Amino acid sequence: MSTETTPFRIAVPQQQLDELNRRLDETRWPDADPGAGWAQGIPLDYTRELAGYWRHGYDWRAQEARLNSFPQFRTEIDGHNVHFVHVRSPEPGALALVLTHGWPGSIVEFLEVIGPLTDPVAHGGDAADAFHVVVPTIPGYGLSGPAVGWSTARAARAWAQLMARLGYDRYAAHGEDTGAAISRELAVIDAEHVVAIHVTMIASATVTAETADPADPGEQRALARAQRAQYELGAYAMLQASRPQTLSYALTDSPVGQMAWIVERFKDWTDSANAPEDAVDRDAMLTNVMIYWLNATAGSSARYYYEGAATWGRPEPETDVPVAVAVMPHDLGIPVRRIAERNHNIVRWTEFDRGGHFAAMEEPDLIIEDLRATFREYRV
Hints:
β8, α13 (337-340) and β9 (345-351) form a beta-alpha-beta unit. By secondary structure, the chain is α/β, with parallel strands linked by helices. The longest helix has 17 residues, at 217-233. It has a 9-stranded mixed β-sheet, with helices on both faces. The chain contains 15 helices and 9 strands.
């Protein structure tokens, strides 16, 4: 196995973009209940309008150039070519930080935070808060390409190898969604090198009707969110955990299907009232969709749910690595500190009044400041 890291640039052949446009033009549209709004899923009128913008207004080449403005690489780890962004800080005392996206996210989640984290002085911050930033693409997702047999534990082992290969003996980790689970695994398997982690989700720290404190308003809000996730918003997870292959045929063949499957999550899980664009930039959201579509990773990314379903709800192994949690009020699930403390070394717990699942994309300023504050005492 090669241990080289090779520079990488995104260069999508025009033929692939022409094929996408043809498929968008030839979309076979379903009927819809005109009065349903978002209650039955992503509305037909909104979907047609967004698909029309994707076809005629969205500029992939501009987005491709923006992605390529960040130094990207590939390296073989555990038999797979792993894609990653690596931006070294100009500050000599910077701490290494690995940022991990989730599903249905990508490196697009972190584009707004890379600059302020790596070069805080240029963004009005303190040089002492600088990070060397590594943003990998999870194998099976987007720019790392399709993969079979990967799980959050296997991805965490790959991240430990990646950080060592890049020469980082001490590093911190942040993750959202699947990235939070991978960061949590890193705290277990690479504790001698991970100084602390920062996450926006701890799946096992949500509450149920049996475990929520009836006298605690915060826990009751978390319970209401958990019950909505289970009974209304969780169908996607059950399908990906049980039949990812069947789903993959539709999403890999239909760009509108892939778009709808992802964009609905942006509506359900973000701090948005009428449409996901209330919370995230439309072009950034479509770039995220494009990364899945162009690399045909709908099925392989969904398989992480299949691989992980057997352990859903079980507490993670204990870790002494310091853990900071950023609680976003509109996330799919809201962790409860009392439960998280059972098997985590919680050193910081910040409950924000805005933001949702794609925290670094929705509220980059909040996440930047929370990351800086979290890791200040772990730099030496």
